[in-house]
Protein backbone atom coordinates (compact mmCIF):
# COMPACT_ATOMS: atom_id res chain seq x y z
CA UNK A 1 0.00 0.00 0.00
CA UNK A 2 1.07 3.58 -0.55
CA UNK A 3 1.63 5.25 2.78
CA UNK A 4 1.60 8.87 3.89
CA UNK A 5 4.78 10.92 3.64
CA UNK A 6 5.07 10.82 7.44
CA UNK A 7 4.93 7.03 7.53
CA UNK A 8 7.43 6.79 4.69
CA UNK A 9 9.82 9.16 6.47
CA UNK A 10 9.51 7.11 9.67
CA UNK A 11 10.34 3.92 7.81
CA UNK A 12 13.33 5.55 6.14
CA UNK A 13 14.91 6.13 9.53
CA UNK A 14 14.83 2.53 10.69
CA UNK A 15 15.24 -1.11 9.76
CA UNK A 16 12.13 -3.13 10.58
CA UNK A 17 11.19 -6.78 10.51
CA UNK A 18 10.00 -6.83 6.89
CA UNK A 19 13.28 -5.11 5.92
CA UNK A 20 15.16 -8.00 7.56
CA UNK A 21 13.36 -10.41 5.22
CA UNK A 22 14.72 -8.44 2.26
CA UNK A 23 18.26 -8.13 3.63
CA UNK A 24 18.57 -11.90 4.07
CA UNK A 25 16.75 -12.75 0.85
CA UNK A 26 20.02 -12.84 -1.12
CA UNK A 27 18.29 -10.81 -3.86
CA UNK A 28 20.60 -7.93 -4.89
CA UNK A 29 17.82 -6.07 -6.74
CA UNK A 30 15.46 -6.02 -3.75
CA UNK A 31 18.30 -5.03 -1.42
CA UNK A 32 19.36 -2.17 -3.69
CA UNK A 33 15.77 -0.93 -3.98
CA UNK A 34 15.47 -0.98 -0.18
CA UNK A 35 18.73 0.96 0.07
CA UNK A 36 17.40 3.64 -2.31
CA UNK A 37 14.19 3.89 -0.29
CA UNK A 38 16.04 4.24 3.03
CA UNK A 39 18.17 7.01 1.53
CA UNK A 40 15.07 8.79 0.26
CA UNK A 41 16.19 8.36 -3.36
CA UNK A 42 13.21 6.18 -4.34
CA UNK A 43 9.60 5.90 -3.25
CA UNK A 44 8.32 2.64 -1.75
CA UNK A 45 6.31 0.55 -4.19
CA UNK A 46 2.55 1.07 -4.22
CA UNK A 47 1.22 -2.29 -2.99
CA UNK A 48 -2.46 -1.36 -2.92
CA UNK A 49 -3.03 -3.44 -6.08
CA UNK A 50 -0.98 -6.42 -4.85
CA UNK A 51 -3.53 -9.13 -4.03
CA UNK A 52 -1.35 -11.24 -1.73
CA UNK A 53 -0.20 -8.20 0.28
CA UNK A 54 -3.71 -6.80 0.67
CA UNK A 55 -5.17 -10.23 1.50
CA UNK A 56 -2.56 -10.70 4.21
CA UNK A 57 -3.39 -7.29 5.62
CA UNK A 58 -7.14 -7.91 5.70
CA UNK A 59 -6.89 -11.44 7.16
CA UNK A 60 -4.48 -10.51 9.96
CA UNK A 61 -7.31 -9.77 12.40
CA UNK A 62 -9.08 -13.02 11.52
CA UNK A 63 -5.81 -14.93 11.84
CA UNK A 64 -5.39 -13.55 15.34
CA UNK A 65 -9.00 -14.37 16.29
CA UNK A 66 -8.70 -17.92 14.93
CA UNK A 67 -5.48 -18.46 16.89
CA UNK A 68 -7.18 -17.26 20.08
CA UNK A 69 -10.20 -19.50 19.42
CA UNK A 70 -8.12 -22.65 18.91
CA UNK A 71 -5.50 -22.08 21.61
CA UNK A 72 -7.45 -20.06 24.21
CA UNK A 73 -4.41 -17.77 24.38
CA UNK A 74 -5.18 -14.05 24.11
CA UNK A 75 -3.07 -11.87 21.82
CA UNK A 76 -2.36 -8.45 23.31
CA UNK A 77 -0.40 -5.31 22.37
CA UNK A 78 -1.43 -5.51 18.70
CA UNK A 79 0.68 -3.07 16.69
CA UNK A 80 2.99 -2.23 19.57
CA UNK A 81 6.30 -0.65 18.50
CA UNK A 82 9.70 -1.48 19.96
CA UNK A 83 13.12 0.14 19.60
CA UNK A 84 16.38 -1.79 20.01
CA UNK A 85 18.23 -0.86 23.20
CA UNK A 86 21.57 -0.80 21.32
CA UNK A 87 20.68 0.63 17.91
CA UNK A 88 18.00 3.28 17.62
CA UNK A 89 17.60 2.59 13.89
CA UNK A 90 16.62 -1.00 14.64
CA UNK A 91 12.92 -1.21 15.38
CA UNK A 92 9.84 -3.37 14.92
CA UNK A 93 6.06 -3.30 15.05
CA UNK A 94 4.65 -6.60 16.28
CA UNK A 95 1.37 -8.21 15.26
CA UNK A 96 0.87 -8.84 18.96
CA UNK A 97 2.22 -10.53 22.07
CA UNK A 98 1.19 -13.83 23.66
CA UNK A 99 1.80 -13.78 27.39
CA UNK A 100 4.76 -11.79 28.63
CA UNK A 101 7.56 -13.07 26.43
CA UNK A 102 6.21 -14.39 23.11
CA UNK A 103 6.02 -12.35 19.91
CA UNK A 104 2.96 -13.10 17.75
CA UNK A 105 3.37 -13.02 13.97
CA UNK A 106 0.40 -13.57 11.61
CA UNK A 107 0.86 -14.57 7.96
CA UNK A 108 -1.42 -15.59 5.08
CA UNK A 109 0.36 -17.57 2.39
CA UNK A 110 -0.37 -19.73 -0.64
CA UNK A 111 -2.37 -22.91 -0.19
CA UNK A 112 0.48 -24.77 -1.89
CA UNK A 113 3.29 -23.35 0.23
CA UNK A 114 5.33 -25.80 2.31
CA UNK A 115 5.81 -25.25 6.01
CA UNK A 116 9.62 -25.25 5.75
CA UNK A 117 9.51 -22.64 3.00
CA UNK A 118 7.24 -20.37 5.04
CA UNK A 119 9.49 -20.64 8.09
CA UNK A 120 12.60 -19.87 6.05
CA UNK A 121 10.94 -16.92 4.30
CA UNK A 122 9.87 -15.20 7.51
CA UNK A 123 12.69 -16.30 9.85
CA UNK A 124 14.66 -13.03 9.42
CA UNK A 125 11.61 -10.99 10.47
CA UNK A 126 10.88 -13.30 13.40
CA UNK A 127 14.45 -13.24 14.72
CA UNK A 128 14.71 -9.47 14.12
CA UNK A 129 11.56 -8.89 16.18
CA UNK A 130 12.81 -11.22 18.91
CA UNK A 131 16.15 -9.41 19.07
CA UNK A 132 14.56 -5.94 19.17
CA UNK A 133 11.95 -6.87 21.78
CA UNK A 134 14.46 -8.99 23.78
CA UNK A 135 11.90 -11.81 23.90
CA UNK A 136 12.90 -15.46 23.76
CA UNK A 137 10.09 -17.03 21.75
CA UNK A 138 7.80 -16.25 18.84
CA UNK A 139 4.53 -17.73 17.60
CA UNK A 140 4.11 -17.81 13.82
CA UNK A 141 0.41 -18.20 13.00
CA UNK A 142 -0.12 -19.12 9.34
CA UNK A 143 -3.19 -19.39 7.11
CA UNK A 144 -2.46 -21.55 4.05
CA UNK A 145 -4.93 -20.40 1.40
CA UNK A 146 -8.38 -21.14 2.80
CA UNK A 147 -7.96 -24.76 3.88
CA UNK A 148 -5.15 -25.08 6.43
CA UNK A 149 -4.08 -23.30 9.58
CA UNK A 150 -0.80 -24.06 11.36
CA UNK A 151 1.07 -22.59 14.31
CA UNK A 152 4.86 -22.71 14.73
CA UNK A 153 6.78 -21.91 17.89
CA UNK A 154 10.23 -20.45 17.19
CA UNK A 155 12.91 -19.86 19.82
CA UNK A 156 15.35 -16.95 19.75
CA UNK A 157 18.56 -18.13 18.08
CA UNK A 158 21.59 -16.03 19.03
CA UNK A 159 23.79 -17.47 16.23
CA UNK A 160 21.23 -16.58 13.58
CA UNK A 161 20.64 -13.19 15.21
CA UNK A 162 24.38 -12.43 15.20
CA UNK A 163 24.47 -13.01 11.43
CA UNK A 164 21.35 -10.90 11.04
CA UNK A 165 22.68 -7.91 13.00
CA UNK A 166 25.91 -8.10 11.01
CA UNK A 167 23.95 -7.86 7.75
CA UNK A 168 21.79 -5.05 9.12
CA UNK A 169 24.77 -3.06 10.39
CA UNK A 170 26.53 -3.37 7.04
CA UNK A 171 23.39 -2.28 5.21
CA UNK A 172 22.77 0.66 7.54
CA UNK A 173 26.34 1.80 7.09
CA UNK A 174 25.66 1.82 3.34
CA UNK A 175 22.53 3.91 3.93
CA UNK A 176 24.53 6.45 5.93
CA UNK A 177 27.60 6.59 3.65
CA UNK A 178 25.89 6.16 0.29
CA UNK A 179 27.93 3.08 -0.57
CA UNK A 180 25.92 0.50 -2.50
CA UNK A 181 25.12 -2.63 -0.46
CA UNK A 182 26.21 -6.13 -1.42
CA UNK A 183 23.90 -9.12 -0.99
CA UNK A 184 25.07 -11.79 1.44
CA UNK A 185 24.14 -15.45 1.69
CA UNK A 186 21.49 -15.98 4.39
CA UNK A 187 22.37 -18.27 7.33
CA UNK A 188 20.46 -21.55 7.75
CA UNK A 189 17.06 -20.94 9.32
CA UNK A 190 16.60 -22.32 12.85
CA UNK A 191 14.12 -25.16 13.24
CA UNK A 192 10.83 -24.53 15.06
CA UNK A 193 10.20 -25.86 18.54
CA UNK A 194 8.29 -29.16 18.51
CA UNK A 195 4.89 -28.34 19.99
CA UNK A 196 2.37 -30.36 17.95
CA UNK A 197 0.50 -33.38 19.31
CA UNK A 198 -0.93 -35.89 16.84
CA UNK A 199 -3.05 -39.05 17.26
CA UNK A 200 -2.08 -42.00 15.03
CA UNK A 201 -4.78 -44.44 16.15
CA UNK A 202 -5.81 -45.11 12.55
CA UNK A 203 -2.29 -45.59 11.18
CA UNK A 204 -1.59 -49.30 10.48
CA UNK A 205 2.20 -48.88 10.35
CA UNK A 206 2.16 -47.12 13.71
CA UNK A 207 -0.10 -49.85 15.13
CA UNK A 208 2.26 -52.61 13.96
CA UNK A 209 5.35 -50.89 15.32
CA UNK A 210 3.59 -50.10 18.59
CA UNK A 211 2.59 -53.77 19.00
CA UNK A 212 6.17 -54.93 18.43
CA UNK A 213 7.51 -52.31 20.83
CA UNK A 214 5.11 -53.33 23.59
CA UNK A 215 5.62 -57.06 22.96
CA UNK A 216 9.41 -57.09 22.85
CA UNK A 217 10.43 -54.22 25.12
CA UNK A 218 11.22 -56.57 28.04
CA UNK A 219 13.17 -58.87 25.72
CA UNK A 220 15.08 -55.85 24.43
CA UNK A 221 16.05 -54.87 27.96
CA UNK A 222 17.25 -58.44 28.65
CA UNK A 223 19.20 -58.46 25.38
CA UNK A 224 20.87 -55.12 26.19
CA UNK A 225 21.79 -56.37 29.65
CA UNK A 226 23.24 -59.59 28.20
CA UNK A 227 25.35 -57.59 25.71
CA UNK A 228 26.78 -55.50 28.53
CA UNK A 229 27.59 -58.61 30.58
CA UNK A 230 29.27 -60.39 27.66
CA UNK A 231 31.43 -57.38 26.77
CA UNK A 232 32.47 -57.00 30.41
CA UNK A 233 33.82 -60.57 30.38
CA UNK A 234 36.09 -59.91 27.39
CA UNK A 235 39.44 -58.76 28.82
CA UNK A 236 41.37 -55.97 27.12
CA UNK A 237 43.95 -58.38 25.66
CA UNK A 238 41.33 -60.76 24.17
CA UNK A 239 40.59 -60.37 20.45
CA UNK A 240 37.89 -63.07 20.31
CA UNK A 241 35.79 -64.85 22.90
CA UNK A 242 33.34 -67.58 21.93
CA UNK A 243 31.15 -70.36 23.29
CA UNK A 244 27.50 -71.47 23.58
CA UNK A 245 26.67 -70.38 20.04
CA UNK A 246 27.97 -66.80 20.09
CA UNK A 247 31.24 -64.95 19.63
CA UNK A 248 32.49 -61.54 20.70
CA UNK A 249 35.21 -60.03 18.48
CA UNK A 250 37.28 -56.94 19.22
CA UNK A 251 38.06 -54.57 16.34
CA UNK A 252 41.35 -52.69 15.92
CA UNK A 253 39.70 -49.64 17.45
CA UNK A 254 38.76 -51.69 20.55
CA UNK A 255 35.01 -51.96 19.87
CA UNK A 256 33.44 -55.34 20.63
CA UNK A 257 30.87 -56.87 18.28
CA UNK A 258 28.68 -59.78 19.38
CA UNK A 259 27.13 -62.12 16.88
CA UNK A 260 25.97 -65.70 16.41
CA UNK A 261 28.96 -67.96 15.78
CA UNK A 262 29.13 -70.01 12.60
SSE order and pairing:
Blueprint: H1 5-12, H2 17-23, H3 28-38, H4 51-71, E1 75-76, E2 81-83, E3 91-93, E4 96-98, E5 102-109, H5 115-133, E6 137-144, E7 148-155, H6 158-177, H7 204-232, E8 240-243, E9 246-250, E10 256-260
Parallel strand pairs: 5-6
Antiparallel strand pairs: 1-4, 2-3, 4-5, 6-7, 8-9, 9-10
Helix pairs in contact: 2-5, 5-6
Describe this entry's structure for a reader.
This protein has helices at residues 5-12, 17-23, 28-38, 51-71, 115-133, 158-177, 204-232; strands at 75-76, 81-83, 91-93, 96-98, 102-109, 137-144, 148-155, 240-243, 246-250, 256-260. With 262 residues, it is an alpha+beta fold. It folds into 2 domains: 5-177, Lambda Exonuclease, Chain A, CATH 3.90.320; 204-260, no CATH class. The strands form 3 sheets. It has a 5-stranded mixed sheet with strand order 1-4-5-6-7. A hairpin with a 7-residue loop joins strand 2 (81-83) and strand 3 (91-93). It is elongated, with a radius of gyration of 27 Å.
Key words describing this protein structure:
262 residues; alpha+beta; Lambda Exonuclease, Chain A; 2 domains; five-stranded mixed beta sheet; three-stranded antiparallel beta sheet; 7 helices; 10 strands; elongated
